[in-house]
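Figure-free illustration: sequence to structure, shown twice.
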Amino acid sequence: MKKYIYATIFLIFANLNLFSQSIGAFSGNVSIEAQTYKKDSVINAPSTSEQILSNSYLNLNYRVGNFDISTRFEAFLNPILGIDSRYKGTGIPYKNITYRGDKIEVSAGNFYEQYGSGLILRSYWDPLLGVDNSIEGARFVVRPIAGVDARIMIGKMRNFWETSNSIIRAGNLDLNFSEIFKNAFPNNWNVTFGASVVSKYEQDDNPNLILPQNELAYSLRAGLYSPKFSIDGEFSYAYNHPEAVNNFTYNNGNGLILNMSYYGEGFGTSLSLHRVDNMDLRGQRDARSTQLTMNFIPPLTKQHFFSRYSIFPYSTQLNGEAGLQYDFNYHLPEGSFLGGRDGADFSLNFSRVQSIRKDKIDKYTYDAKFFDIGDTLLFQDANFDFTKYFGSNFDLVIRYANIINNKDILFFSGAPHYGKIFVNILGAEGTYRFSDNFSLHSKIEHLWQTQDSTLHEADNENGNWLSGLVETTFYGSFMTSVALDWNYGNEFEDHQLLFYTFNVAYLMDASRFSLSYGRSPGGIICVGGICRTVPATNGFYLSVTSSF
């Protein structure tokens, strides 16, 4: 049956392409990643039975009139290590047709959706993380007047090459009062309100527990945005949803997000707060890791650009955390004492995340008062960036961060490995443009690291690191780079190793070709608080991307 589906889609796109110049627009993009693996017992880098592992995809889109037709072909032959092996194979997991009118929108097939901040529903695709929880079903959107967006949907989530056992039904309403009542608010002000509801049906097939077959969650949100300040918030509530990731607790869940910002002359500042309890919602009760995630909470931590940030990222704890983040950004004017002739930028960031207090009642329930913060520190980050400009040819960035990461809880479910790790990292990087045809980018960093528990097993992470990078760009299209990471402070002498990556890349119109060879210590990749583990590797890596 699959081959007939593929052939039909191919014929549709082939015919659409023939007439695209006159009746529509045809576009797409392709990506190929391939990695070789050489066994390296010193860094615990595995070998594989295949010489090369690869992840590839091809997106095809066609727009004609009010219709959009999209599909994506994927090939994991076999998945690169770190990507879930259940993606192994080839197929077309994404197929969508959408009609967009002036006031209505109808979608059938696969689609992605997010309500508000994502507290009760967020489906998305991130090939870097190996996450694709698209919804296969139907969606209807109506926008009767400016400022009103109402939508409903029904479907099943992607579960590798199949769909989930559950059915998701959801609805959302977004109102922008500044558009509905145009004369009621000052210019450039926006006042918004939103409400969402999500229902999941999954048959109870557990022989030992009586599980709810219908699970319900809802959220309410509001925002006020002006040229000088903004404030917005969202509250969510999920009725009991026993599942593997919450140890089958029968507690209800809730979440709260608050964001406040102020914008002045040359500066901006913001404060974000959130609290979540038992809000890890899944498309199936037995799902774990990044499988079938239904929701998301915006992280309260900064995405750093340090070379070894993969040692200490933050993984959001949807089943229980409370935290805050403060940001301050200031532009030092040209001609000022610190800004100099060409000005400078300074940013300060602080975040802290704690556990929430949970008092156990019995095996399946607990008591968690809303304002009761736990005693366990999960993560803390105090950092600053200073960027100095020297004309149009040279800029210099100095970065510093002090980080505490409760790694055992965040990544090992409390098992004793590191305890808390304490990190200080200082770095400097600069870019000098010799001409329009040649530029040089380089950086150097030092990381000091300790932990509050004794290490019993050798690894590629502990101790102090010295890192450097040199990157050249010729004619804006040909790039070379050398990156070095020296773990000279590892507590195990035979692991005080130098890691390296050599890379060449070429840009041609909308295509990029990159080939690298290196010995990598591995680590953890996190995007938006969602993480996956990357094993140590020794080998070649090829990346090809192109858009058309």
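We now fold a second protein in the same way, so the two outputs can be compared directly.
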Amino acid sequence: MIAKCYECHSRQAAEVQGGLLLDSRDATRSGGDSGPVVVSGRPDDSLLFQAITATDNSMPPDNPLSSEVIEDFRSWILSGAADPRGQADEHLIQDPDYTEARKHWAFQPVRSHPIPAVEATEWPSTAIDYFVLQQLERNGLSPAPRAAPELLLRRLYFDLIGLPPAPETVDRFVDDPSQTAYCRIVDRLLDSPQYGERWAQHWLDVVRYSETEGFEYDRTLPDIWRYRDYVIASFNEDKPYDQFLTEQLAGDEIDPDDQQMRIAAGFHRLGSVRRNAGNQKVASSRNEVLTERTDIIGSAVLGLTVGCARCHDHKFDPIPQQDYYRLQAFFAATQEDDLSLRDEDEQTRLLAVKEKLEAQIAELKATLADATGDEEQRLRDELARLDGELPPPGPTLCSVKNSFDETSHVYLLRRGNPDLPGPQVGMRSLGVLVSDTQPELPPDTPNPRTQLALELTNPTHPLTARVIVNRIWQQHFGTGLVSTANDFGKNGSLPSHPELLDHLTGEFVADRWRFKSLHRAIVTSSVYRQSSHSSHSEAGREIDPQNRLLWSFPRRRLSGEEIRDAMLSISGSLNPQMGGMSVILPVEQELVDQLYKPAQWVVSDSREQHHRRSIYLFAKRNLRLPFMEVFDQPSAQTSCAAREQSTHARQALELLNGTLTNQLASALADRLAREAGPDPIRLVTHAYRLTTARRPSSQELELSQRFIEDVGLSEFALALFNINAFLYVE
């Protein structure tokens, strides 16, 4: 077999033919795409024997076996096909030589670079500006002038807290737009609790946060909103990223008695779970859970498409299939753990009630299998009644724990199929990122996820800090220095400013992985304070049509959450309450009826709760709020590297005809009448200052007054929610 078959049917083959591996006992017995190839004791029924004896297309091709060897195969199969190679054949797993692969820029260590020399020495305000200006000057471009104070302030407010500035705040900055005044505003916004609400949403996008599990049942995760609140609090505390990441990867291992640590570990519960797949402990269901937990480390933390190595070696990046499963092995002992916060007696009582009802439900389901007609309907009604009587989970910590008694042995799965296990593997990070001599950890290694966190947060790790720094830059400028935020591999984009990325990463780690210092460095730079309009726009578009060199500030549309929150704030309707249970809003009944259990969508009673910030709205995978969906809210099925910014008719229809926008337009009209009085000039001016942070032009003033006379103040307020000056950040 080694001499004649391994070229096409082993893990060393350039391309495995027919899905058939013959390089281990397990693989040979499992067979390939056509099924098992050896039937013990029956050579004529064995596909392997048929292949080597066929008169046409015999195997091996162009090099038929001798009659003596064929007879040896017959005798071997007749005698039981004994295979001395063992179950795992770990010696057959051969890691590639990573010497060339490690030359890829993202796998290189972060380096310190000198501040570059530039010609326009009066322009830079921070080190960032020197790196950007160097690239501009090399390409014959000049930066745009500084943005107008009112537009810069609006940009800063939306970027840091996701809400518009008050007119009086704008006035003070217009009167004193000095560096000192600007830095005071930056510090105040970074210290605002609303900062955490804004920046938590970016992280929740990356980790595909949802409060339900997806698939058909879309079961609610008990009190997973506590994880959302943990993320908000972590940003507000300026928790170092290495600590923030470690707590999520291994909080339950670090301190199982600390509720916040258990909540942080709820990170591992955020992936979709197919509850209607039957027994969750069977190999296929367990494999789906482990796949979710492995893939998110690749995309969210490493910025690599690790999931592409689940079924075969990665086609582009140096990630062999065994490395995928080595990474997965860190989660082999991780099991779901919902901790009740009820007192012990109450929990015991309710558990007994639940077990009794579940036994009745199981009995009814067994009877239902043979029922028809009226009897079937009666049983279904009874099932629905019993299901409704199941006690709710009550206050819960949705988390994970290690259960080494239930540890899943992790094998290299052929084609990612749990029914086709290959060699068993142990815990180890991606080979391209570690020493060639680093061994796998044994399955009984204590605190395995803590070990992974220590590796990922090592200051010398080439990816972890680079990836998160790039994400922060992306949220300020619309595009990261690496435009493919979840793919730093060969198929991803090259960094537009590689030395700047290294500089920011080095500063970030040196400053103890703190976000607020990074924000401060970015938003106080001259490149951030550029206008989005430039007299050199024509040259810029010709030389750098995607504005990767940042010759002007990239204009962006507000996200769905920002639009909704801004409308609430401007109309005076925003409820500033922070934290706690998520809010379920009323939606069209047709959408609710499409759910597996429409009773899951129980609208929150208090109307005031309906006006809380969007981050507190209930996030259900199978029912996205229409307003959010139309403005490109991600689906939470996979990690969202960057929000889309589409433009289509449904957005205009939602803004013009939607219940929310019309209600808030009426509230804004009431506020305008109350604060500006009947004077039409004051009224229009105040409306523009609230919605756009600037005063109207003379043409806008004239048109607006005529519009109000023709259709009324509420329609004018609604129109302002639809203008680009409101929907876009300049």
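Summary for the second example: The first helix runs from residue 25 to 30.
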